[in-house]
Write a sequence for this structure.
């Protein structure tokens, strides 16, 4: 277990932003993770858990406490059951499941970060969410001081949310178990319209696993959503805002406002989101409110490839990023009456 003091945290995030931590511990085993958490809790020291840093916005002043970087390793495949250590690189794990001929997470290729973060955020993209394949999550419960195993139905998964995100001070994810599918080398049924179009198939069809993965990677790269250390257009947290989910009443008011703003024939994106609710597109809202690709004059700007990604063009500060985010939130609210919610976790700052 490595320990550093006054340690820079910006290099541990995909934004490359944020000040130092008073203390940084890098844990490579579950036992080291638990020991570090217990020590911090016993001392009353603030604790920041860091995985891949792909969903993290840290303030310029840094973190006054112990930052715990989880760098555990473990990829265990038994039939169609997969167990990943929390520190495993998610993109690498997806690649290995495809190589093993197992379906269920192939459309989640290219998402930066660690395996342990996936249940917290209920990571999803291109028609797949990890909640569909996660069977169990092994976590350290700081409230009871024990390691616990939570079955899928105990994780309270919903859109970009979970029990772990709802109570972030309680659980530290150690391992994630998945139940995948052996479909003879084929993918899970293609659910996302954009993916189906790119593949030239109908929704519900299956395609070779590698084809599905490679197609998603190309789609993501075209939107600047595949991390490239040399490309500042990818120095982001991916989608900075979640897609709003509105009640039927709220959506009707929103739809009327869209037509008033954009003309009688204008229709906002609408997707079913459970009884009495409709999901719309944050990217569409941002664009139609006037924040187009590449928007911004400073070191923090909207990606040139996707309006949902806010990026560090080099030399930005966290305050630069937040100023841009606040401008976008205020603009969308003024035009459409909808308040966007940030997807990344903020540390020491807020919108």
């Amino acid at each position: 277990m490595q320990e550093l003091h006054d340690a820079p945290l910006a290099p541990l995030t995909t934004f490359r932003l944020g000040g130092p931590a008073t203390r940084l511990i890098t844990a490579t085993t579950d036992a080291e993770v638990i020991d570090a958490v217990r020590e911090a809790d016993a001392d009353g020291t603030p604790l920041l858990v860091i995985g891949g840093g792909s969903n993290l916005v840290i303030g310029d002043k840094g973190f006054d406490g112990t930052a715990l970087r989880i760098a555990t390793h473990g990829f265990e495949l038994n039939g169609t059951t997969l167990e990943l250590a929390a520190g495993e690189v998610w993109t690498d794990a997806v690649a290995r499941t495809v190589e093993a001929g197992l379906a269920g997470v192939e459309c989640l290729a290219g998402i930066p970060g660690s395996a342990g973060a996936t249940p917290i955020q209920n990571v999803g993209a291109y028609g797949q969410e990890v909640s569909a394949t996660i069977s169990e999550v092994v976590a350290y419960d700081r409230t009871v001081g024990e390691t616990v195993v939570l079955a899928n139905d105990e994780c309270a998964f919903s859109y970009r949310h979970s029990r772990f995100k709802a109570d972030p001070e309680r659980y530290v994810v150690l391992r994630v178990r998945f139940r995948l599918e052996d479909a003879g080398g084929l993918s899970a049924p293609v659910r996302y319209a954009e993916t189906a179009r790119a593949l030239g198939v109908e929704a519900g069809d299956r395609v070779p696993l590698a084809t599905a993965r490679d197609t998603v990677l190309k789609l993501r790269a075209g939107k600047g959503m595949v991390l490239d250390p040399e490309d500042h257009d990818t120095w982001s947290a991916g989608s900075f805002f979640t897609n709003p989910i509105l009640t039927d009443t709220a959506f009707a008011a929103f739809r009327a406002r869209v037509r008033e703003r954009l003309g009688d024939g204008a229709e906002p994106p609408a997707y079913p989101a459970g009884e009495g609710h409709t999901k719309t597109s944050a990217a569409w809202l941002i664009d139609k409110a006037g924040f187009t690709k590449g928007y911004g004059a400073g070191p923090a700007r909207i990606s040139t490839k996707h309006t949902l990604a806010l990026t560090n063009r080099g030399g930005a500060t966290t305050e630069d990023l937040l100023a841009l985010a606040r401008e976008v939130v205020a603009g969308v609210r003024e035009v459409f009456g909808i308040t966007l919610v940030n997807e990344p976790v903020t540390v020491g700052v807020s919108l």
